[in-house]
Amino acid sequence: MNYTSDHLYASPDYNSGDDSSTIGDDSSPMYQRDVRSRRRLQQYDLPRRNHMKSTLPWLLSISLLSVPKFAVHMGPSILSRELQAPALPLTPSISTLSKFSSHPINHRGSTSIYDEHAAKCDSYGNSAGRETASKGDLYGSTPQLTRHHVSTSNLGRSDLSRHPGSAIDIFRTDPHSVNQLDFHDFGDGFEPGYISDDYVGPAMELMYAWTMIDIEFDSIEARDLAIFEGDYIAENNLPLGLDVWRDKVFITLPKWKTGIPVTLATVPRHSKKRNPKLKPYPSWQWHRSENCEGLTSVFRVQVDECDRLWVLDSGKTELAIRSKQLCPPAIFIFDLRTDNLIRKYTLPDEQIKQDSLYINIAVDIRNHDCSSAVAYLSDVWRYGIVVYDFFKDTTFRVEHPFFYPDPLASRYELHGIKFLWTDGIFGIALSPVDIRDDRTLFFHPMSSFREFAVSTSIFRDKRTADRNAEEFVPVGRPRAKDYGHSSGSAIDRNGVMFFNMVTRDSVWCWDTRKEYIPQNLGVIGTSNVSLIFPNDIKVDHEPEQSVWLISNRLPMYLYGTLNSGNINYRIFKASVKEAIRDTVCDPNYVVPDSDPGLDDNC
């Protein structure tokens, strides 16, 4: 992954317009409140200025709004039509890339990718040069960022304006639909009267939303000192990984830049605020150690069924600047009932290559035997898996060509930003135990459109793993022909996989008992406002499982186009049962016969 600006082409006016919601409580940094105060004064002072100067722009705007024929419709997209999403209202495009515009879509009842694919093939093909259909709804990587202004006396219904001829999404316009107008009553400092277009899916519930991350310091003086010394720079703190245990939601903050005082924190699961301050976990002391005894830079964590938190510490800091290996990668295992450290294991030097970056962890426990756990760690930059045996307290490293990135999938384009990332093995997820008392480890590189699998039985020891390289197999077909990059993945007890599609602003699902082909992949959520770069995803251990995911606009953060006045970070939750209902991922869903006339190249 190359985080320099050599491959960056960002729209200069990306910061204009978004789903802006402003934090107005004491959790906001002081300079934010000063900026808002000045803006309010400017608004109040408007009538006292020259009346003609202030009136002419309004008259001009009104006259333009009354001429719908001047509305510009974007051209078709080069994106694969294997996935469609709920319709979005037409809004001005922030980035006008001639080779990457959005395509019109229609929302239909089925969420099967196959259905949309078959319906769109004949009419659109996969050519970027055809004429746009009459619909004005946009989806894809065009940054359609909207904010709806709704008066506080009219919070019972949506007032979504649209251009003539554009389709209406029934989920957006029905005031009784799930997650429709929930956001006027945050009770957390967001300004009343502003509703962010946060619809993601019929089962998705917005749990948290932040413009910037604030930390729970021991005192006001400690906070002021951290700001003064540059130890806390609010806009540099980006939440990335998450997991859930009982009443706690764990959030990781890797140290991409300076000014990040905490790398692992919690928020209450049932918070009264949608933007709570993050509390350091287990305590501040674990984040102040300078001798590598504490936590350095954590990307992801895993809660196991034995009430333990597995923390994979990369040991790397300032990755967006010059990447310093401050401490060796290590595994920390905490008892969640006491918050005490059970064990720390530091990876040996021979398993750490130059520029290694350990970012993901999956934990395998069989028959509730907590002492025989096995953890799999993925090295995204040097393309390997490290297998940790809890009972033996040992590790070994495995490498395979399937862990490498696909050069043809290393080009990314997201909301007007173009970049090249060569990320290897990234998403890892374990299937349920099968009839042979074995599990399958599913994995994929970030820069790839393919899924792969291997039986965990070959990971008994390094010799067995090295001698069974043929046991690593590709699964099915590519998930998409273009923009099929996936980050995290997770599998529930019934074998349904959920995975984030980072360049499609969406979350997909797959029943692992079915063939991995486009018509067997479903969509549980999509939004080019609220799901910009969905990063981590987890399935909790509750009796009725839920899927949790976090979106964080990582490319905008890395390449300097993140607008601190907008909602940038969100955490969503959905009941697994409700998320897959009536989708191809539902075990009871009957897959239709393949259309013999379907052209795979369209």
From TrEMBL:
One Pfam short name: MRJP
UniProt cross-references to Gene3D superfamilies, sorted A to Z: TolB, C-terminal domain
Annotated GO CC locations: extracellular region
Main location group: secreted
Keywords from the named record: Secreted, Signal
Region (Disordered): 1-34
Keyword Translocase among UniProt keywords: no
Compositional bias per record (Low complexity), positions renumbered to this chain: 17-28
Span of the signal peptide: none
InterPro entries: 6-blade_b-propeller_TolB-like, MRJP/yellow-related
Localisation per UniProt entry: Secreted
Source organism superkingdom: Eukaryota
PANTHER family associated with the record: DOPAMINECHROME TAUTOMERASE (PTHR10009:SF13), PROTEIN YELLOW-RELATED (PTHR10009)
Family the UniProt entry places it in: Belongs to the major royal jelly protein family.
Protein name: Protein yellow
Natural source organism: Camponotus floridanus
